[in-house]
Specification:
Helix content: 55-70%
Oligomer: single chain
Strand content: under 5%
Distance between the termini: 29 Å
Radius of gyration: 16 Å
Order of helices and strands: HHHHH
Shape: elongated
Number of strands: 0
Largest sheet: none
C-alpha cells in the first residue's frame, strides 16, 4: 500500500473512531433528557435539530451555534424560548467546547427520525 493510501486509510479510521466517540458521548449524556423522537423532560433531538437546521443550515454554523449555546445556555440566546418556558433552562454542563463540537457534529450528521427512538447507532 502506498504512503498516500495509508494516510487516507488512517484518516478514514480516525473519522470512524471520532464518530463512535461522539455517539457514545451523545448516548451517555444527552439522551438522559433529550429523547430522540419524544419530548418528555426536554425537547426531543428531532425537535431541536429541526429548529437549529432552520436557523443554521450549513454544518459549520449549526455545530458552532449549538456548541456555543450548550456551553453557556441562556434564555435570551435560545432558539427555543418556548421550550425553555415549558421545560426550564438547560443546566450548565461540564463539557469543554471540543467535546460539544463533537456531539453537535454527531447530531447534525445523524437522522434521528429514522432510527425509531433507538439510543444507539448501528
Amino acid at each position: 500500500m502506498s504512503k498516500k493510501y495509508f494516510i487516507l486509510f488512517l484518516l478514514f479510521v480516525h473519522s470512524l473512531q471520532a464518530n463512535e466517540i461522539n455517539s457514545l458521548l451523545f448516548t451517555g449524556n444527552c439522551i438522559t433528557c433529550h429523547k430522540e423522537t419524544e419530548s418528555i423532560s426536554a425537547p426531543s433531538v428531532v425537535e431541536f435539530k429541526k429548529r437549529y437546521l432552520s436557523a443554521f443550515s450549513k454544518k459549520e454554523d449549526f455545530v458552532e451555534q449549538m456548541s456555543e449555546w450548550v456551553l453557556n445556555p441562556k434564555e435570551e440566546t435560545s432558539l427555543m424560548r418556548d421550550a425553555v418556558k415549558k421545560y426550564g433552562l438547560m443546566p450548565h454542563l461540564c463539557f469543554d467546547e471540543e467535546t460539544l463540537v463533537g456531539i453537535s457534529t454527531y447530531i447534525y450528521e445523524t437522522d434521528f427520525s429514522k432510527r425509531g427512538g433507538r439510543y444507539w447507532s448501528k
